[in-house]
Amino acid sequence: GALVYQYPRRTICKSGTSMRMECQAVGFQATSVAWYRQSPQKTFELIALSTVNSAIKYEQNFTQEKFPISHPNLSFSSMTVLNAYLEDRGLYLCGARETISNERLFFGHGTKLSVL
Amino acid sequence: GEKVEQHQSTLSVREGDSAVINCTYTDTASSYFPWYKQEAGKSLHFVIDIRSNVDRKQSQRLTVLLDKKAKRFSLHITATQPEDSAIYFCAANTNTGKLTFGDGTVLTVKP
User: B82 preceded by cis ω (within 30°)?
Assistant: First the structure.
């Protein structure tokens, strides 16, 4: 079956430092990877959509300078939160799908980021 | 861009009753509508989905209805159980691959 592993599950970082999270697709080819953030008491906001061999598209309010993403192959993607502050805390999810037309997104467990 | 609205922030039902969660969307190009649930402190778990070429899909106790004219879709859960308690998120996806979520409905099934 199709699975997405995301790690770490939880992380705490000091204000102003950076942290990286990784996503591994197993059992299918992750042509397209979407990174989401769920801030406390809120819904899931799309940060960026990454398709292998295409430019990464960032949503309004999110930039490559703050959330650099790497998607080097069909099984792996990573995202870093640079200079994390209180407003960056929340649950970060990666979702992967095989193609744009095969639309179901398989989500990882998420990375819960706390900022001190 | 697409906006997905979930009209009930909370819903409480008695065990065995039915629960219905309603969503609307704005982008007529949306063609795929999944539902996910999130239990406390956990990630999103896929529940059921529907594509725009049909208006109804059933899987055991779950049914999704889609009204493209009204740009409305709904999740129906029959014979609810306490284990169904969770936050349910509807979402809509256009052919650009962008999936937009509603704000979530907290479903509580009381024994």
Answer: no
